[in-house]
């Protein structure tokens, strides 16, 4: 057996991570185990992913290591994919859902997180740096494990004050007892981390500070610090929970059950069991349980839960519908086109969960910075304790006290959580409005964009061209021409192909038998029709291959001057005719260009269409354009712009994939091909061009929020480091500075959940 076959990618849900140090602690502890590589820990998604050689370390060892640090862990639901298409998670991973108002569509999912609680509560029944288990969700703070810790330590502290009041001579011992009882579980976790090679954790600093305070006879303050530490933990947990709630809300959209039609009768089945090709009944008021195509019925579909589009759209036979959308008017029969693990909501959730892997450069820098920051703080604290007494003859008690205060300030929790909290909030806000981004790296790149390059068809235009002219040559009839063209285009999803197929259907013309269809990137399509090859291609390509003569080219030019797209249909050295189509610009395209210009972002159209058709579209929108571009031409153009400024490429076709990959940020329109969506860094579900400036606006707001958070985290640390050294603030202020900063940056990040990226500043 080779090394490759022994290694497996493993995924767990880890409950209880509330701050940056939590993720760092887990990552470092697990990474030290033999056979473990590629460790990724997501705070907001509560995810642990790694590559494991199970011959060297078992999965059980990974789980026991995480549990020993005080966190809950359980294997993550199987079937999650890393593909980037229109996103989400299978019902097995969905948190508790909401009721749609129908008995059969209650969204009462048993979540992956809830299964953690049922399967294992270890690590959560003792006090200390206790982490909220999923069972705590929805409870008041005082019902949670952390809340119980606050109550216990508060009662101990209160009892000590009572004892001191009634019996001052033994009051000191009451505070010592309160401190030791409260800090014991914290120390237990500190030693667990120490055994795994992590001496610099908040638990270890807290333990040293509490014991040190007892040594210098500051028992009352030591007990108070233990209590404030517990309060800070509760606040951190509440803030982190609110940040995650914004993400969990995305999962509350797909109903738990569906009405499956079999043999003319309906029966209720789990939505997670639906298979492609099955027929389901969706009643008025129901949420649609799967991505599908309407086969019978016409109704208004409210897609706001999925795309943020507030106005219901009328949908009828042949139209596609999203899982999670609401049927508002009439009963529909829908044929399932995507399995539960690949429906729109499932992919959205999966995208958000996995987005933390694409960490922003700022986040990576802060992670590196925090690794030497805490040891440096410990070294400074040691110098503060030792140097003044030894060199200047200062009192030991005074400087030990100040050094201990520095230790408590030293934890970089607020700094480490400042970026992921903002990124998670921004992604949640975007997802609610149909703006999907792969992660922090994409958000940071989008915030720096100076150029936006648009594909034309399906991006600036509707992508639904209509055939306007059919011009057969010689003895060929219009029906013959359409029969050959439809045969070549059969099976293609390109907008021009669909227009030709629709025209043939309207004319009652059946496509000839064809096989071996092959796309000519940016040029057309060739297929074997009958026993010979036939092409549907651009006039330029047809001229080069004797498929169009001079007269035919002049006719094509006339169509193009009118803003139409012309294609030539020919067999080997035998022109058959021309077909002209027109695709109208999207209604909001001009407004999108205006908004981008107002934001200081330049725009250009990159299209494989002819210059005359491109000029007709670009002139109306006030854009620059580059026409007759092959995929490699688009790639070269994007590469050249990218040397000067950040560039965002917007496309929807197979020929856009290379340029989407090359751009600083590649954005796929939601109606685009799977290849474009998989290649892109982001997607626009609503097919609105104005969502492009909205995406940039959201990214800029997220980066501004991150800068604010870093300033808050480092600013508070700097202020209290100075005041602690000069004796202006004590231990209890130091612990508030640490946990308070963490709470502040998390709450600041939560402001992004209310940000409206569609509103111009």
CATH H level, superfamily name of the domain at 435-461 and 585-684: HAD superfamily/HAD-like
Largest sheet: 7 strands, mixed
Mean pLDDT: 80
Poorly predicted parts: 79-135
Q: Output the structural class.
A: alpha+beta
CATH class of the domain at 435-461 and 585-684: Alpha Beta
What separation lies between the terminal Cα atoms? Answer: 60 Å
Coarse shape: elongated
How much strand content do the residues show?
15-25%
Structure write-up:
By secondary structure, the protein is α+β, with helices and mostly antiparallel strands. Among the domains are: 3-76, Alpha-Beta Plaits, CATH 3.30.70.100; 139-252; 257-349, Calcium-transporting ATPase, cytoplasmic transduction domain A; 435-461 and 585-684, Rossmann fold, CATH 3.40.50; 466-582, 3-Layer(aba) Sandwich (Calcium-transporting ATPase, cytoplasmic domain N). 48% of the residues lie in helices and 18% in strands. Strands 14-26-25-24-15-22-23 form a seven-stranded mixed β-sheet, sandwiched between helices. Strands 6-5-7-13-8-11 form a six-stranded antiparallel β-sheet, with no helix packed on it. A hairpin with a 3-residue loop joins strand 17 and strand 18 (524-529). Helix 25 (691-725) packs antiparallel against helix 26 (731-750). The longest helix is centred in the C-terminal third of the chain and has 35 residues, at 691-725. The chain starts with a helix and ends in an 11-residue tail after the last helix. 55% of the residues are buried. Residues 79-135 have low confidence and may be disordered.
